[in-house]
Structures are given as C-alpha cells and as structure tokens.
Amino acid sequence: MSISSDSESDEVPRRRGEPDEEGGASGARARSATASSGSSGSAGRGASSRDAPRSAGPGAASAAATRRRGEDAFGVVQALGPKQKDRPRALVGLANLGNTCFMNSCLQCLSNTPELSGVFASGAFERELDPKSKSRELTLNYAQLMQDMWRGGGKGGQVCIQPSALKMQISRWARQFSGYNQHDAQELLRFLLDGLQEGLMRPKRELPFSFDDDAFDDRPVPEQAHRMWQNYLARNDSLITEVFCGQLHSRVVCSRCRRESNCYDPFMDLSLPIPRGGGLKGGMFGGGECSLEQCLAAFVEEERLSGMDEYYCAKCKKHQEATKSMRLFRLPRVLVVHLKRFDKRFSRSKINTTVRFVPPPPPPHHSSCPLIARAPGRFPLANLDLAPFTSPASPERHSAQYQLCGITHHSGSTEGGHYIAHCRNYDDGAWYCFNDGRVSPVAGPPVDGSAYMLFYVRGGS
C-alpha cells in the first residue's frame, strides 16, 4: 500500500507484461486509491485467455478463494455472539502515550468495525496466522488489544487501556512511527492494515492467468476484472483482503481511433478530493460545504489526457489525446473513505470544508462541539449508495448500499492538532465519542469540517 498521505499520480494504465515497480510481499498489495491514480500492484495488467487456469494446489482454487470472501466476511460477525444491549462491549478508552491520538482514533474505528473485530476478538485469526511472518508479533498484539477492548467497557464499567505493546510493535514494523511525534492517521491506518495483512497472508499460489494475453482487450469487462482479481488474490489473499479490499476499473479511450484500454487495480481505501468551486458552498480553506457524493463524483470525473499527459495508443503507435475515466468495480465489505484535507500545493493549508455525509439533525440536539456528552440516541444511519459511482458492468452495482459505523476527526492545522473518533456501537447501535481515554455517549457524530476518515459497512450490521 502507498505510504504517503494524499499521494497522486498522473500515470495511465500500464501495458501488459510491464514489470511491477515494487517487489516483495507487500509491493503488490492494494494501495489507497486517489483521484488521479489507477496505479497499484500486479492486478492492473492483462490476463491470458489462451492459458486455462492452472492448478494452484489442494484447497487453493480460485473458486474457494471467492467463496471465502463471501462467507468468512459475513461469518466472522456472528463470532461476536449475541448483541449485549444492556451492557455494550468495546466502550473502552485508550490512553494517550504522548501525541498518540492519531493511533487511538484509528484503533477505535477498527474496534467498532464488526467485520474486523469478529476476526480478532473471537480468536478466529489464529488459524490464519503465519508463524514465519515478520509482522507476527504485530498481529498478536493487535489481537490482544482488541480482545481486551471487547472484554471491557459496558455502561458503568468503563475502563481505559494503555496500548503500549501495540505501539511498540507498530514502531518496529514502520520505523517512522517510533517515538511520540504526531503523525497522519491515514498513514498509520495504511501501515497497520499492511502489517496485519502480512501476518495473516495465506500461502501464495501460482497465478491462474498469464499476463501475456494479446486478446485481453477484446474480452468482456467482467471477465477482464475477474481474471485480474484472481491473479491478485493468488499473491495477496488474507482475511484483511476479504474485509477491506475492493477493485477499481480505469478506462482510457484514444480520441483518434477510439481504442479502449482497461486497467483493474485493488484498493484498501479511497482518497477523495474535496471539490473546489462549482457546487461548493462557501470558501475552500476557511469553510464552505459540500456532500460526500460530490467528493465521489469528483473522484470518478472523466479526465482529459493531453499535452505532456498524452496516452500512448498501441493501435495508433503514437501518443494521442485521450479521455480517462474511473469507476468502482468490486466493492469491499468495509469501505474506508479518506478526505484529502491537506493540499500539497499549500503545505501549511488545511481544507476545512464541511463534507456532509448525513442529513443535518434537527436542533437543539446537534452541537458543534464533539466533546459534549449527550444522552445515547439513534443517529441517521447515513446510508451511502455507491451505485452511481460503480461500473455499469459490475455485478455488484445493485448491492452497493453502505452504512456509517465510524469517523476519525482531526481538529487543528497541518502543524498540530488533535484526533478523536465517533463510532456506532455494535451492541446497542448508539453513537459514542472516543477522545483518547474518555468515552462519552453522543446523539451522533458532528457534521463539520473535521471529518477526516469515514468507515462504512456494506449493507449495515
């Protein structure tokens, strides 16, 4: 996965057979998807139709991998057991070890994502743990913390845990998190999921389809996407993939000969631009307002490739102007949306635009202060429909409904600030504010310019 926050790329889909720039266990894994990038690992290249799928050994057939994605991702939630509405679990604070609010807010959102907590809190991860993995200790420490968090909490039984052991393992896995400086929460999330995927990686299989396929562009889009997905799973199959990984479809059309080229790339989160001008109400850095749907529309907006960005057309045998469009194709069980609030062109600027992801709750229940404790209550479920942003050729277009389950908020500037999280509890369905060691019931998350990462569960839970 990409390690830099708000990274962008202007590259066009790679040619088939072009070597991947990254090697090793993590190089081919899904990166975060950005507004202008379709690059990521080996899954973007063409597959062979001449070669029938090669055997991957006992228990490793592609059909079995597909079944695991469908069955396990839903089954692990049941491992959490009956909902305990009278004594909800996971209402546990995390002590700030010194500027570690960025880590605590991510961990709270992950803890309150049932599809992931079911894997670790129930111990289901143990049968998937790779004993030789470099991130084995990181995975074990994360699992222990999740189990401790899900055993604690409950109304009247709130506790606070020090995540020191996990912090140490994260620092060993990604050295830039050593010490106690403030870091970007999205960058931490990417590295943490990367480490967990490494620790739970299933044995690699032989690629079922060859990348050398002269007829790839003539195949139907669903078949192209399926072949690329199976090749990706052959080298990157894990419980983390089942929960968080989706697939993007990038399409480039030559403006002269109309030749179409398709690219398919995995992603673990979507980095969405915050639109400027047009339908944006108010200012850019000082405030204003837009909807999450507008951010998604900007993400999939058709792009003109011209000038220095011209596309090399294999049919014309020269660089040509082209149009590039991108859509979602395979939807993840858990969707992480990252709002690009830090503008690379203005290193000290933060975009404080309010991104509205729910209808505004009626006053006086709503407060602009995220730390004011309020009585537990139901908040609009914040349904998100990804169908308008999904490829028309995707079979998942008609089951693209998501429900909000957690938000990481950042207040402050690029030079300093504070992270908190708002999460919907699995047991009682109420919203709570997690501010390091403090846990407070709230009517719902604030809808303002502080939302930074949003966690959505497909179909609700």
Set out the fold topology.
Layout: H1 24-27, E1 31-33, H2 62-78, E2 92-94, H3 101-111, H4 114-120, H5 136-151, E3 159-161, H6 164-173, H7 185-199, H8 221-236, H9 239-244, E4 246-254, E5 260-272, E6 289-291, H10 292-300, E7 303-305, E8 311-313, E9 318-320, E10 322-330, E11 334-339, E12 354-356, E13 384-385, E14 401-413, E15 416-424, E16 431-435, E17 438-442, E18 451-458
Parallel strand pairs: 1-5, 2-3, 5-11, 6-12
Antiparallel strand pairs: 4-5, 4-10, 7-10, 8-9, 11-18, 13-14, 14-15, 14-18, 15-16, 16-17
Helix pairs in contact: 2-4, 3-7, 5-6, 5-7
Question: Could you please describe the fold and organization of this structure?
Answer:
With 461 residues, the protein is an alpha+beta fold. The protein has one domain: Cathepsin B, Chain A. 24% of the residues lie in helices and 22% in strands. The chain is built from 10 helices and 18 strands. The strands form 4 sheets. Strands 1, 4, 5, 7, 10, 11, 13, 14, 15, 16, 17 and 18 form a 12-stranded mixed β-sheet that branches. Strands 2-3 form a two-stranded parallel sheet. Strands 6-12 form a two-stranded parallel sheet. Strand 8 and strand 9 form a beta hairpin. The chain is globular, with a radius of gyration of 22 Å.
